[in-house]
Amino acid sequence: MNVRPVFSRYLWRFVFCCALLWVAAQAAPNVPPDQYFTGTITALEDGKITARRTVLGKDSTRSFQITSQTRIEGRPKVNARVTVKYVTTEDGDMAVHIIVRAPIAKK
């Protein structure tokens, strides 16, 4: 039995698969990573939502654009707790998914 042709056949398959993976990785679009912001809605306008949060004593406020592709779960209103999944674009932060959280129960 000749081992060389069998080894050569598998080697070429391996090289071909590696080349395909490399080409696919190079052709993949540069999609910005998703980010999340959880806080309280301070302003709600047409096409824009602003939320504020406090982390380790520091206040942080962010505004997000709302587009027709933005998924909204619940009814956003001022002072409602919200989690915003967003991507940063050239035009600013764009909301991808807005989840309005249930109010915190008072004891």
Keywords:
107 residues; alpha+beta; OB fold (Dihydrolipoamide Acetyltransferase, E2P); 1 helix
Summarize this entry quickly.
With 107 residues, this protein is of the alpha+beta class.
Describe the 3D structure.
Strand 1 (35-45) and strand 2 (48-55) form a beta hairpin. The protein has a domain at 35-100: OB fold (Dihydrolipoamide Acetyltransferase, E2P), CATH 2.40.50. The protein has one helix at residues 3-27; strands spanning 35-45, 48-55, 58-65, 71-73, 81-89, 92-100. It has 107 residues and is of the alpha+beta class. It contains one helix and six strands, in the order αββββββ.
User: Which shape, going by the Cα principal axes?
Assistant: elongated
The main sheet comes to: 6 strands, mixed
The CATH topology of the domain at 35-100 is: OB fold (Dihydrolipoamide Acetyltransferase, E2P)
Mean pLDDT: 84
Tell me the distance between the termini: 81 Å
Helix content: 10-25%
